[in-house]
Structure prediction request, 163 residues.
Amino acid sequence: MNMFKSVLFSAAAAACLATSAASETILAVYGDVATSSDGGAWSFSAEDLRTLPSESFQTETIWTEGEQTFVGVPLHSLLEHVGASNGKLIAIAANDYAVSIPTSDAVPNGPIVAYLRNGEEMSLRDKGPLWIVYPFAGNAAYKSEEYYSRSIWQLSQIEVVAN
Prediction:
């Protein structure tokens, strides 16, 4: 990297860190969505997500012991908020693991983007800070490998891909 690019990269990195520290983005939503207020991808901090409608449910998962209480933004509300098109979501975790979720999963009483589990924020080590969770206990159809594979934890990005 030449000296100019190195300085430019360092300045850009510092600006990103300063912005990140101020807003602490935990979720980016981009792709076939409406334009955000700043004209770029939608960036949500934990506080931003808490201003959106929330839902809670109790369910057991195959990754946890006993019944868990999850609180978060209903996936359908998040997609409506960002003006997402019908199609599919590419949900990406902090470790770059990705799953495809059809937007048809985003229905009332369906999955949520959980930010609390049992009343506590989830750390990266504890499958957080965000986890797409389906109400497995409330709908027997969700108790399948198909839906278990879509229940992605350490969620950091959602790309919306139109049909």
Observations:
- Confidence is low (pLDDT under 50) at residues 1-22.
- DSSP finds four helices and ten strands in the chain.
